[in-house]
């Protein structure tokens, strides 16, 4: 099988093809752990050839799969960051801003359960710690800025560094979201936003 030295430049890539491949990859990664997924499965789900995946994500099998997972993660977290910025516009009080951040994440996973399952199955702790995609970096910076604002105003606990406060906030939020998906609970988790956020708010405020 002839392989290419690297992916096509962006100017030669069809956005519709990328979107189809990445949508299919999210479905496959959502159903299986990363090391069990094959590029052949993704190609079948996307109704494309392996050569097409190599042209868009590189020609090495494992490298292509890593690049494809990163692309899916970047796309999903980029969408989440955009929604968060939109919803934060015009909110004045800090508590309401942080509450909206909490709600947007719950609502995102309610609307995109496959993205949540992909993160459970294929995004390991080391990948979160590396901030490996622009979308992930942007989302982390957005979270940190909101939490740092709360500490500066004397509202949030400042006895720990902001990144540790972020880990606490993330840990609660992602655990709730992921276990809701894994347990197959009915209903929208965002509908319980008020009581869940009140519990977290009491834990992190001064």
Q: How would you explain this protein's 3D organization?
A:
The chain is mostly helical. The chain has ten helices and no strands. The N and C termini lie far apart (62 Å). The radius of gyration is 19 Å and the shape is elongated. Helix content is 71%, strand content 0%.
Shape: elongated
Summarize the biggest pleated sheet.
none
User: Could you spell the SSE succession in H and E letters?
Assistant: HHHHHHHHHH
Q: What's the count of strands? A: 0
Structural class: mainly alpha
Oligomer: single chain
**Regions with little confidence, pLDDT below 50 for 5+ residues:** 1-5
What is the alpha-carbon Rg in Å? 19 Å
What's the average pLDDT?
Answer: 87
Question: Percent range for helical residues?
Answer: over 70%
Task: Kindly list the characteristics that best describe this protein.
disordered N terminus, 206 residues, 0% strand, elongated, mainly alpha, single chain, 10 helices
What is this structure's SSE topology?
Elements: H1 15-31, H2 39-46, H3 50-57, H4 61-88, H5 94-111, H6 113-122, H7 125-130, H8 134-152, H9 162-182, H10 193-204
Short recap of the structure:
It contains ten helices and no strands.
